[in-house]
Amino acid sequence: MKHSMAIEEIAASGEFRHLSTIAHIAVDLRYASPDNFVGRDLYSPHDCAWLHIDAAAALESVVAWLAARQPSYRILVLDALRPQRVQQLLWDALEGTDLQMYLASPERGSIHSFGMALDLTILDENGRELDMGTGFDDLTERSHPALEAVLLERGEISLTQIANRQLLRDAMAQAGFHGISTEWWHYDCGDRNLVREKYWRIL
Ligand SMILES: [Zn+2]
After folding, report:
1. 81 closest CA partner among 107, 127, 47, 106
2. Which class does domain 4-202 fall in?
3. What pTM, to 2 d.p., does this model score?
4. Which of 17, 26, 49, 79 is the most buried (most CB within 10 A)?
5. Contact of 131 with 160, CB cutoff 8 Å
């Protein structure tokens, strides 16, 4: 491991920005509540509402892009910085199930642990999550962006749901975020290999 920093140190480091400094977003960190697949708050007592400054700037570009196209919509951040210790807890929680494919192994490390990944969705004019076909952390094939054409054919996803995901994809792509094939809500900022090589991993 090249560079690592404890979560307790990030506020003073100057390399991270608190989500409260990003205007016009809503934040509901699901791992900081019992509303997640483990069923308990995994972040307390740590404040994990942080992003690396590069990812924070990119998120601001997403917000501006969305405001120009759908001013009544808002970004809802579901997860941002996820310390390595929490990644380990999640990994252990899925031990022995075929759901471990949804997680980066603790040795390799999640891009979330560098503050360079985001889980997010979009809220409509009434503050409700857009219908993306599944909820956050629905670890089934219905969440896989790579399978949308097949799911559409099977009647398991609608054109509206795909269009809602596409709006998020377009907003993220123009800011330099990259999606993954298995989770519609997950985006990495920039090049994953570069992040693992150059950025601070938060323990
Ligand atoms: Zn994620």
Report:
1. 47
2. alpha beta
3. 0.95
4. 79
5. yes
